[in-house]
Amino acid sequence: MNTLKWLFAMLVVTLAVPVWAVQPGEMLDDPVLEERAREISQDLRCLVCRNENIDDSNAELAKDLRVLVRER
Fold it and tell me: Which pLDDT tens digit goes with each residue over 13-40?
């Protein structure tokens, strides 16, 4: 029974940790520009996930859109 409680606790902790889809290689070196890109991408919805913004989505299309936002 202790094992079951431990597994449940680990599951809760794992699900409680937020997962960001933005990868370190996508981030801009300039923190001001990176913050601006984050603001923009928080408002753009993923075309695959629809209820997620492109920053939170793990879809390949969302990754491509994040890169395009940062390029511009």
Answer: 444 444 557 888 888 899 999 999 999 9
Half-sphere exposure (CA, 13 Å, Cβ side) for 3? 0
Sign of the alpha-carbon dihedral angle for 9, 12, 16, 22: positive
Q: Is the pTM of this model over 0.70?
A: no
Kind and range of the H or E run holding 60: helix 60-71
Residue type, 69: V
Q: Which of 23, 26, 20 is nearest to 52 (CA)?
A: 20
Residue that has been written with the tokens 């001001």 in this structure:
32
